[in-house]
Design brief:
ornithine carbamoyltransferase activity, alpha/beta, globular, 4-stranded parallel beta sheet
Length: 299
Amino acid sequence: MPLATDDFLDIDDVTPAELDALLDRAAAMKAGETDPRLPDATLGMIFEKPSTRTRVSFETGMTRLGGHAMFLGPDDIQLGHGEPLRDTARVLGRYVDGVMARLFDHEDVETLAEHADCPVINGLTDEAHPCQTLADLLTIRETVGEDATVAWVGDGNNVGQSFVVGAAMAGIDIAVATPAEYGMDPAVFDRAAEFGADVEPTTDPEAVVGDADVVYTDVWISMGQEDQRDEKLAAFDGFQVNADLLAGTDAKVMHCLPAHRGEEVTDGVLESDRALVWDQAENRMHAQNALLVELLGGE
């Protein structure tokens, strides 16, 4: 059955039951147990930000499903060149079967969804990265199991915010350690609480790592924040995921990539058998394929 939502802008646009079903479908498709198709379907992919995993996973995924993905960069369409976003959305909705957008401002993806007469998927905004969360939850299922505790260590960014809510929906225990000035939006913890999670953020990484099955981190300086580099590097002193922080634990390590090796995580950790990052990257495609089939009505 298709999802109750027409669009996927953040992880809690679906219900916990729908999230569970999405992950079940993704696992089945990955294992080759089912082979749904989207014949002749076209996905318009809008990119304000450069990408490796988002572009390749969606484009390859649509090909595997029997459809077609169309890359629309800032120099390819009128986005940001004078045409209102709502007009771009209206036109795209009459051409394509779905839109995936990787944008800066979250309000822009909401505008697309409001005016496009087709499903819209958030491929990343400054506030949320729900497709990454789907891949993360699939990876945790496959490796450490759903009875897991995950520690988020580092910047309270878009990836972390979506993951905290998604983990709560999946029944995964989550702990959060960020510098005080770079924490998550308090509304994120309120949303997680709606699914039974009681997240009390801390500024002490060691306090959350000790009991964790997985330690999750991400870059400290995201795209568009390069002018904050010196300030942020000073604020994140002590938050690096390294051998010392992980000492005495069996915790696996997750990172959505790309990683700034030597900043938020060491090269040694990423190259160790603790790292789940390559499974996460692969699972972007499998999780998104399941989402595409559900939203676009695959056969």
